[in-house]
Amino acid sequence: MHFTTARIDIDLTRQSLSLLGADGQVLACYPVSTALNGPGEQDGSGCTPRGSHYIRASIGGGLPSGTVFRARRPTGEVFNPELALAHPGRDWILSRILWLCGLEWGRNRGPGVDTFRRFIYIHGTPNSEPMGVPLSHGCVRMRNADVIDLFGRVGPGTAVTIR
């Protein structure tokens, strides 16, 4: 599939991510977990930004499922229960990162509201974290197998709508 023909639709109410083909057909649908603080665009809000975005960078291709990332770089660790016990309360970013960039100046792009500068990603999370329940710090969390599948179907430039 050519990356620019697919698009992603994230429904905050349904806590779902749909991959849509060029003709709008649903190619895949995944449960997600968005922000505990709800929707919002302000820096430091801990909210998931709404509106039109695109994938600015895809990080982690070819790495094992459960690869741990810090500051968008693999740490060399693979998530496991012992690692979780050693770092309680850590916001785990696992497997793959799709880094989002806003397209709407003053809403999700620019000073005080910039999705890219807020480091908002679609990323994997431990299997112990529930899907369908908003619990993230602003990002869109997915099951590791799901984010790896999605990662293989999209790439930089893919349109993302969060509503």
Automatic annotation (TrEMBL):
Stretches assigned to the L,D-TPase catalytic domain: 6-163
BP GO terms, sorted: cell wall organization; peptidoglycan-protein cross-linking; regulation of cell shape
Keyword terms, alphabetized: Cell shape, Cell wall biogenesis/degradation, Glycosyltransferase, Hydrolase, Peptidoglycan synthesis, Transferase
CDD domains according to UniProt: YkuD_like (cd16913)
Keyword Hydrolase part of the UniProt annotation: yes
GO MF entries: glycosyltransferase activity; peptidoglycan L,D-transpeptidase activity
InterPro entries assigned to the protein according to its UniProt record, in alphabetical order: LD-transpeptidase, LD_TPept_cat_dom, Transpep_catalytic_dom
GO CC annotation: extracellular region
UniProt-annotated catalytic positions: 123, 139
Gene3D superfamilies given in the database record: L,D-transpeptidase catalytic domain-like
PROSITE patterns: LD_TPASE
Biochemical pathway: Cell wall biogenesis; peptidoglycan biosynthesis
Family of the protein in this entry: Belongs to the YkuD family.
Protein name: L,D-transpeptidase catalytic domain
